[in-house]
Amino acid sequence: MNWPPTSFPGTFEERRALTELIQTPYAFMPAFITRIELHSGTADDYQTLNTAMETTGFSRAIQANDGSALLLPTGQYVGNGEVAATEVLQLAQRAALSTKKGFAVFVSDVNNAAWFGLDPAPRPANAN
Q: Is residue 22 part of a domain?
C-alpha cells in the first residue's frame, strides 16, 4: 500500500459523494490539529497509527472551503470535541503507543487553517 496516496481514485460524482460524507463542525466545538512523529517509523507503523487514531475519533481528512476533502500529511490528524488540548494529547499518546515505536506528539487547537499542496482524500471504504 502506498501511503499517503498521490492521486484520488474515482469519478467526479464519487469525489462529490465523499465531500458530502465529511462534516467538520468547527463552528460548534473546539477543533484540534495533532501531529505525531514516529521515531524510525515505517509506512506500516503509520498505518497502525492511522487505525488507532481513527478508532479514537481523529481523521486525516479535512474539508476545504470548496467542499473538497483533502488528506493531511503523514502523522497529522484533525479532531474536535468538548475537551482540552491536554486530553487530546493523552488520546494521541495512547494511539501512538500501539505502534511500539518512540514518538513525539504536538497538539494545538485551531480556528483557522491554511494549506497548500495537500492530496485529495481517498474515498472511505464504507461510502456508497
A: no
pLDDT in tens, 61-92: 998 888 888 999 999 999 988 888 999 999 99
Provide the number of structural domains found in the chain: 1
Set of cell numbers at residue 5: 496516496
Task: Decide if 9 is inside a domain.
Answer: no
Domain that holds residue 59: 29-112
- For residue 69, which phi and psi values (nearest 5 degrees)? -95, 130
CB 4 within 8 A of CB 64: no
* Nine-digit cell string for 40: 524510525
* Pair 25, 103: CB distance under 8 Å: no
Specify the pTM. Answer: 0.72
Give Cα separations from 124 to 13, 23, 26, 69, 72 (angstroms). Answer: 14, 13, 21, 11, 15
